[in-house]
Amino acid sequence: MWIAYKTIVVKEILRFSRIWVQTIFPPIITTSLYLLIFGGLMGERIGAMQGVDYLHFIIPGIILMTVIQNAYANTVSSFFLAKFNHSIEELLISPVSYWVILLGYVSGGVARGFAVGFGVFIAVSFFVELQIYSIGIVLITFLLTAVLFSLAGFINAIFAQSFDDISIVPTFILMPMIYLGGMFYSVDILPEFWQMLSKFNPIYYMVDSFRMGFLGNATTDFLVSITVLTSMIIMLALLAFYLLKKGINVKT
Amino acid sequence: MPAALLISNLTKTYANNISALSKVNLRVEQGDFFALLGSNGAGKTTMIGIICALLNKTSGSISVLGLEQSTNLNQVKRMIGLMPQEFNFNLFEPIEEILINQAGYYGIDRHLAKSRAEILLKRVELWDRRLDIAKSLSGGMKRRLMLARALIHQPKILILDEPSAGVDVEIRHSMWAFLTELNEQGMTIILTTHYLEEAELLCRHIAILDKGQVIEQSSMKDLLAKVAKQVLILESVEPLPSVLPAVDFAIEKLDNHSIQVVLDGMSISQALSELSLKGIEIEHVKSTQNRLETLFLHLTSKQK
Which of A89, B194, B203, B219 has a Cα-to-Cα distance from A22 of 20 to 30 A? Predict the structure, then answer.
C-alpha cells in the first residue's frame, strides 16, 4: 500500500515538475502582478482593512487563491488525462485500493498547491515584510484547503467527458466562489444579508483562517472554520471514493 | 490442479443494451498457450476487460487459479499481466518510469523494479531508449513496451490482446520466440489475434468467440483435424516427368519442379509415399492456405 501510494505521489510530483514552466512559474508571476496592482498601487487609496493596510490584508487571500487553483488544476487535469489516454488502466488492473488512488492524487494536488503557494510566499517576501501570527494555523488551513480542492478537482475529473468539462467548473463556479469569499475584502463590510450568504461559501472560512494565521484577527472562530472545512473534506472524500469504486465514467 | 482461468456463464450487457457476452463458459489450463479468436466485436476485448477488472460484468463468475475474482480481486490482479490492444500509457512519461511506476502499483520497491525493468527492457530491445518518452517510440516499440510492462510484476497468467498488431515481421518473430520461452517456463498465456497463423503456430488450445458466445473450444490439433481438405504445393528433387502419374488425389503440374495437390482426408505422409512409389521424390512441402483461417471462416459463417 505504502509503495503504491508513494509511486502515485512521486509520479504526480514529477508530472507537474517536468512542466514547471506551465504549472509553477505562471501562477507566481500572476500573483505577483495582483499584489503589485491591487495591493501596491490601488491599496494605498483603499486604506486599511481589518486593522491592517490593504497590501498586507490581501496577501493571505492571494496566496490561498493560488493554492486553491493549483490544487484543483492538478488533480482535475492529471486524472482526466489519465482517463483520456487510458493510462488509468495501469492503476485499475493493479492491486491498488481505491483509497490509495484517491489519496495519491489528492497528495499530488496538495504538493502542487504547496509548491506554488510557497513560491508566491517567497516572491512576495522580496517586496513586502511579511508577518506570521501562527505558523500552525497557516499550515493547517493550507492543508485543509489544498485537500478540499484537490478532492473537488478529482470529482470534476471523474465526471468530465471532454476538455471543456474540466474548465467549466473552475471558470463558472470556482472563480466566483474565490472572488466572493472575502479574498479582496473583509466580509464585515458587506450588508448583513450578504454576510450571511458568504458563510455558505467554504472559501470564506479558508481565507478567514489563513488571514488569521498571518494577521492574528478573523471574523469567524478558527475552530468553526476547521470544522466546516473538515466536514466538507469528509463529504467530498466519501463521494469521490464512491464514484471511483463504482467506476463512474472510469469503467463501463 | 485448478484451472488457470475458469469462466462460468459470463454475461455482459452494456448500458445501451448491447449484449457483448452471453453466458460464456471457458476453461484455460495452467501452463497452456491458449488462443481466443473471434472477429471484430465478437467480445474478446470485453471478456479480457472483465477478467482484468477494467469492466464490470453483468453476471457470471470468473475464477483464476482457484480464486474467485469477485471476492479475491487484489490477489487475482497480482496473478495477471495484461498487454492490451490499445496503447494505454502516458505518452509523455519516460519508458523506464512507466515500468517502474507499474511495479510500484504492485508494491514492488523502486530498487527491485529498476533491476526488473532493466532485464525486461533489454529483452524487448528497448533498453537504449529507456530515458526517452513513450511518444517517441514507433508502434511496434510501444507494443513491446506494453509487453515488458505486463511482465514487470511476474504474473502467472499473461493476457495478450492482439500483441502483434502493427509489428513488423522480424519483431513479430522475436516476440513469438519470447512468448514461447515464457510459456516453456510455465507461464499461462492467453492470446487474441487476427493473425490466425500466429495462433496456429503458438497455441495448444483454442476458443472461438462469435457474437458474444463461445462457438468452439478444443485443442488446436483436434480443431485443425476437422479441416479435411488441404491444398499443398510440393517441390520435387528431380525435374518432373512431362506427364504426371495417376495417383489417388488431385494433382496438377505447376512447373518443372512443382506440383499442386489437393488432399481430401489423406495425410501428407500418405501422399508423399504414393508419389515416391511413382518415382517422384519431394523435398519441400508448402501449404497454400491457412487451415485455421478456413475453419474460422467456416465456423463463424455457420452462425450467421
Answer: A89
SS3 B127: helix
HSE of A54, CA atoms in CB hemisphere, 13 A: 16
What would the pLDDT profile of B237-295 be if each residue is shown by its tens digit? 889 988 888 888 888 888 888 898 887 767 777 888 888 888 898 888 777 666 666 66
Q: State the cell numbers at A107.
A: 497528495
HSE on the CB side for A114, CA within 13 Å? 14
Is A6 an 8 Å CB contact of chain B? yes
A249 contacts on B by Cβ (under 8 Å): none
Please, are residues B96 and B130 in contact by the beta-carbon 8 Å criterion? yes
CB B206 within 8 A of CB B300: no
A252 touching B (Cβ < 8 Å): yes
The minimal CB distance from B108 to the residues A3, A85, A92 is found for A3
Q: A217 is written with which cell numbers?
A: 484577527
Chain A, residues 93-132, CB within 8 A of chain B, namely 93-97
How many other CB atoms are found less than 10 A from the CB of residue A249? 15
How do residues B141-179 score in pLDDT, each as one tens digit?
999 999 999 999 999 999 999 888 777 888 888 889 999
**Is there a contact between B12 and B58 (Cβ–Cβ < 8 Å)?**
yes
Question: Residue B301 and residue B294: Cα distance in Å, rounded?
Answer: 11
Nearest-Cα residue of chain B relative to residue A252:
B55
- For the beta carbon of residue B241, count every other beta carbon within 10 angstroms: 12
Contact A236, A144 (CB under 8 A): no
The one-character DSSP state at B246 is P
Q: Which residue do the cell numbers 480542492 mark?
A: A149
Facing residue for A251 by CB, picked from B54, B82, B97: B54
Tell me which residue in B15, B54, B74 faces A89 most closely, judged by beta carbons: B54
Cβ–Cβ of A94/B102 closer than 8 Å?
yes
**Contact indicator for B266, B247 with CB cutoff of 8 Å:** no
What Å distances lie between residue B289 and A176, B64, B231, B259, B262, CA to CA? 69, 36, 7, 15, 11
Integer Cα distance of B166 and B161 in angstroms: 13
Q: What residues in B contact A18, CB-CB < 8 Å?
A: 92
Distance CA B225, CA A63 (A): 75
Chain A residues in contact with B80 (beta carbon < 8 A): 93
Instruction: Pick the residue of B105, B111, B154, B159 with the most A CBs within 10 A to test the interface with A by mutation.
Output: B105
**E-assigned strand segments in chain B:** 5-13, 19-28, 33-38, 59-64, 67-68, 80-83, 157-161, 188-192, 205-210, 213-219, 229-236, 250-253, 258-264, 282-287
- What is the interface pTM, i.e. ipTM, of the complex? 0.86
